[in-house]
Amino acid sequence: MGEQAFSFVPLSVSARPPRLVVVVPHDEDWVRWMALGLARVSQLWGGSGSVVVPAAAVGHAGVERALAQFGPDHVVAYNPSWGSVDKLFPGLVDRFIAGQQVEDGAAREAATQMLRATAWSHAIVAQAEGAAEDLRSRLAVNRREDLVQLTHVFDSCSPSDLTELGAVAQVPLYGVPRAMVTTIEALSCAMAIGVQEQSGTAEVEVSAWQAAMVHQAEPEAVSEVRIAAGPDALAVRSHEAALCISVQRGIPNRDTLLVFGGRPEDYALAEVLRQTHGRVSWVPWNEPSRNEGWLYVRSYTQDRILATSASLNLDEVRERIDVSWRLRIPSVVPERDVAPEVVSSAQVNFSCRQMVVLRDAWEQPRSLPVLVGAEGTLDAALSLPGEVPAGLDADRHRWQVTLTTNNHPVPPLHTLTSSAVIATDQNPWETFARPADGGITYWSHRFDFVSAGASLAGRLAAPRLSWPAIGKVLQHAAAAQRTEIRPSAAGKRAAIAERLLGSRTDLERLASSPGWPVLRAFTSKKADWELPPGSVWKLKSGLVLSWDAVAAYESKDWDEHARRGELDRWASQGVVRRGFVLGCCHCPIFEFYPLAEITQHYSCRRCGGENSLSQERWKSPLSEPAWYYELHPAVRELVENDGDVPLLATQFLRTQHWARPSLVSEEFEVLRGGNPFVEIDFALATLDQVWLGEAKSGDALASTAKEQKREVCKLIEGCTTLGAGGLVLATSKPRWSDATVQILRREVEGRRAAERMTPKIILLAGLATNPGLTALEA
């Protein structure tokens, strides 16, 4: 085990309701089942930030991609009671009781009441449970092997599991009456407002539901329900009703997204995107109407209007919006009318994360002592004390605690399980902890063992957590795919240089400093300036330079005094070694001897002969020997192999808003069956995902088109293997070659056509001169 240092890490602590994905059973009449599921989730605290999906939509690639971005705390199946199902199929309970032939009136009533509260058992419920279990496994959320805590939602929840919305809300609540949700148009409105089990069976015209979705208003029948609830009433699916707000991290997505199609997977896609994308409208009806015209009016806060679907192909979506576009009523300001762009569900951009948090208990500053491992992992030295947020009651409410730090993100990879984020001596059964929202989240209450009458501190969870280093993050990702990673030769050299200088940031700063050309002069490459005679010697061990060689380097940003100080600093760090170039009286060879090895008498490195430090032995003809400097072998190889390119790339990337903060890894190899199949020049872990990078000094990935295609495939496959959501291609040239860009585009188009996972690719060019990023548009 490596040495550990003690430090403090600043934390941002937030309290929030749990995020759920609730898988609902259904038959052919899936809309009514979704209304039933929405009615149940609308009653839960956190229902405004949770998603309800039909079992048939689980497994759709676009839906699961959005669910992975959503990052649920729990994936659960909705198991309705007989009483709830009886609302869909009136008389179901009575028919079952009649079949039991219970004659006594009191016994019959008791049996009826007991049956109504009993979980309904049916094949479609089993299918929903199976779909939830599969999704739980693929998203690596509350799996059985990770101490599963919650698997089902029933019509009434145990207080130790979830909190009812009514236990938190402080004003009257209203929703769309469940009995009114019988069409997809009604469902598109109900998914935003929420559903309640209340009277309201008035007929509502389809056009009224359509207008409500487009204008974010309410049909008259729903407005009557709201008015009846009182002037202060809030929608059951509003964040305000739950004393919560939605916070966004990163630059908010300015695009409006339209989801077309009336299938269960279209509803599920729109339902999830509402929580992850922001401005989303579900357009489930088949026949275009003039109501849709308002969807194509771009507001001042929008960049684009995008159209997608989970059930329609791109041509079908394009045909659908072309018809409705022709039906639109032009706005008063024509330039604000904009035709939507068609994208596949796999191309929807997630540039900003949303998190629903308790309004008065988020981003509370804390500081925690940690032990910093040699590889960069942070282990909490103490547990955070359990706290009850204002407005909540530890006896009646359950919440999530989310911790983030500004200097050590934890990317939300599904391969990072609870074991990756708890300290080695922490009881894993105390609470359910997992990576989330760029940090770590855990359940507010202990669930291992709580004795009767325990104190508040004894009931609340206070785990010791661990923030894994990027090396551990990558190892977990590789192990999940039955692969391995190991440092490459270049990665080992970079790690040595980082250790000498102090950090990766210091090494990046050196690569972009005026001192890098001086380091290059120690290699076999030609120096950028004329070296004075006698200031450089080529020995078998490499080149050595004197101060005269460094002093001859002219740079307006690096005067001689600064150069002198930098050279001394390098010597103190071990980047260079100060010493003499001395010969041997027994054999004709000169070698570099570090200062620490020189006394009046020294042994020849070649033949072992004894020598005396005298004028005949030193290389220079001066009356006294001159100091020479030798570059550390690992640093020399790093410089000689253009090691500044990946360093400049990661230095620039960390200036981007989406990469602050971030963790950076040196070059490594990904192995399959013990054999390396791809080298990765760097990895970048941010709050949102992992990026892999390839850095070149030239403008191509290889010398031929065939080799370039092979390299592109290997890099994309490396991203898929490690769960990286992005690939960065960096070059020192002003731009990547057209041939390289075309090969990238063709490969991306082919993978998307085959519905294969494809990372987002960005091109970085002009390193050290005028760096700039462009996204690869396929």
Description:
With 778 residues, this protein is α/β, with parallel strands linked by helices. Helix 2 runs parallel beside helix 10 and helix 21 (705-722) packs across helix 22. The model has no long low-confidence stretch (mean pLDDT 88). Helix content is 30%, strand content 22%. Strands 19-20-18-1-16-17-21 form a 7-stranded antiparallel beta sheet, with no helix packed on it. A 6-stranded mixed beta sheet has the order 30-33-34-35-36-37, sandwiched between helices. A hairpin with a 2-residue loop joins strand 31 and strand 32. It is built from 22 helices and 37 strands.
What topology emerges from the helices and strands here?
Layout: E1 5-16, E2 20-24, H1 30-42, E3 51-54, H2 61-70, E4 74-78, H3 82-88, H4 92-99, H5 105-116, H6 123-139, E5 152-153, E6 173-174, E7 176-177, H7 184-193, E8 195-196, H8 206-215, H9 220-229, E9 234-235, E10 244-249, E11 256-260, H10 264-276, E12 280-283, E13 305-309, H11 314-327, E14 341-342, E15 353-358, E16 364-372, E17 378-380, E18 400-405, E19 433-436, E20 439-443, H12 456-459, E21 466-467, H13 470-480, E22 484-487, H14 489-501, H15 504-511, H16 515-520, E23 536-539, E24 542-546, H17 547-551, H18 560-573, E25 576-582, E26 591-594, E27 601-603, E28 610-612, E29 628-631, H19 633-640, H20 644-653, E30 663-665, E31 668-672, E32 675-680, E33 682-685, E34 690-696, H21 705-722, E35 726-731, H22 738-753, E36 760-765, E37 772-775
Parallel strand pairs: 2-3, 2-4, 4-5, 6-9, 7-8, 11-12, 11-13, 13-14, 34-35, 35-36
Antiparallel strand pairs: 1-16, 1-18, 10-15, 16-17, 17-21, 18-20, 19-20, 22-31, 23-24, 24-29, 25-26, 25-29, 27-28, 30-33, 31-32, 33-34, 36-37
Helix pairs in contact: 1-7, 2-10, 7-8, 14-15, 14-19, 15-20, 21-22
